Amino acid sequence: MAADQLTIALDANGADAGPAEVARAAALAAAGGEVRVRVFGPVAEIGRPDAGRDSRTPRGAGSFAPGVELVDAPVSIAKAADPARAVRSTPASSIVQAVRAVADGRADALVSGGSTGAALAAGLFHVKRARGVHRPALAVLVPVPGRPFLLLDCGANVEVRPEHLVQFAHMGAAFMEAVIGLERPRVALLSNGTEANKGTEDVQAAHAALAGAAGLTFAGNVEGFAVGTGEADVIVTDGFTGNVFLKVMEGTADTLLRAVREAATSSARAKAGGLLLRPALAGLRDAIDPEAQGGAFLLGLRRLGVVPHGSFGPNGIARAIELAARGVRADVIGRTHDRLAAAGALRRPSEAVATVPDP
Amino acid sequence: MAADQLTIALDANGADAGPAEVARAAALAAAGGEVRVRVFGPVAEIGRPDAGRDSRTPRGAGSFAPGVELVDAPVSIAKAADPARAVRSTPASSIVQAVRAVADGRADALVSGGSTGAALAAGLFHVKRARGVHRPALAVLVPVPGRPFLLLDCGANVEVRPEHLVQFAHMGAAFMEAVIGLERPRVALLSNGTEANKGTEDVQAAHAALAGAAGLTFAGNVEGFAVGTGEADVIVTDGFTGNVFLKVMEGTADTLLRAVREAATSSARAKAGGLLLRPALAGLRDAIDPEAQGGAFLLGLRRLGVVPHGSFGPNGIARAIELAARGVRADVIGRTHDRLAAAGALRRPSEAVATVPDP
User: What sign has the CA pseudo-torsion B15, B20, B24, B27?
Assistant: First the structure.
């Protein structure tokens, strides 16, 4: 193992594709030799040979592929109705084992196979908040062709205070600088109008706080239209609104692309057109492919976490592993802390720590 | 004037298309003889002949076209930063005159040329809330091909209480029954998950209240994905989230259709495909055309109001006039009251009336 080789802890449970495909993603990510992956999942299922694709033979815990170590952890809490309770009551679960590996320093970052709620709850319980951070947030890199932006919070905190939104702004900016390599990312606040007096009382207070924040390039309020305008690199909002934002976007894109496909089969003429257009539209489909973005980033804990979308296949999960490693190498946690400290936005030890949010 | 001929008050200021085009929309809507329109706007601008389209000659207040009466009201507050204050300080403005015509019974419903904020503020101030209604709401019929749904509130109230959301549910259901002719519309609550315990405390309380509400077909929580699934006919939410929902949808659709157009000009082969596919895609464009839906409906006042999108042309504004007339004929106001009364959801006179929301 090279001196600077990182280890990612990967929970193989929870993804729609199943544990074997998640393990395959680990093998893909580790193939380059820059990262090792410790996979926590059901060895019996992962080791089973998958006829028709490759010639893996059943094996127990241990080496699975070059750079991939398998730890038997068959218990899954990915579907638990109350993730926080499940985390406390099920220490043997794969997500708790993966998170504890990160908390104990046996791994540098976490990638979860698919359950955001369980990853967040386990992260809060075992890895804990980064020093000075009020609340962790889920951040999603939204794949708009040519101008992706980071949206946070996408669901970790359904209710937030203005000082949380200011911290989200710094967390998002640090991420875009460290992981995406963007200088002076433009941070905007989501509201129902561009004027400073739009939005709820909390949103108005957050606007004022962001406008006066040191070290931020604050672009003011943006509306939902900002999904396509490229006017901001980071958009901050509460986890309820961010979750709705993301799902409306996905639902609209799915509905429209389905309608375009239907239009392209509605007549012989349209079918001919659709065939000719298909290669160009495939480029568009690749450009907005959520798998290319790696999933949701869990920011604000002492270690970085990445939660791929539950629907991702091996390529998307491998991408999540790569982005987690890049975030560790670029020290996104340290940069976030430095930003918050420089801006005077660290939570003071005397301030009440909010109860663990319900993810 | 036929005994059952309705009169719509139309504010000609505020639309991007300009007052003359708004007046032309009135003429279009009135041409069928089923509705009269009283247009409040700048006569000097509206009466000016528009060379190249028709032979209107300049004239003063009075008849403009069959069924259209012109009232000179040149003052516009459509761009006022504080609509509520502008409404109080500018009684001569076209929107206040149009709204007062409705309040005094000289017209049966309001259609505004484009400023939602001014229409809402003037409506609250002069037409007033319907008896037993906590808060008026802006409702938008979202043009999903084959399965349109009504989304409310889209921006009248950035903060709401659970009992407001219950009233929105009845207001939306009454609208879909009366104006769209849908029986037993399925009403859903927007949240960040389908489970009853998802969302803010207020959203959870609203879920419980809706689940127990008499006379409602409650479909439970829906997520932002519901934009394309057809799982609900009415979706209720607070005005902040509804506004973000609508604008994310518009922004995503615009961005994607632009990307499809760009893909269709990216190569000679794609261009040929785009030309063949164009008629089929035009059908899709018509199906999702917001102008066909008439705009936003102002529900919960003593009279119905419709606010077309500021970008609408004469056809969209004419459609808004037709829908306002249809809503009056189908007694959407009376039906809403009956629903609220039957469900025991009327605001009691003893309950505090919230201050006028800032639109």
Answer: positive
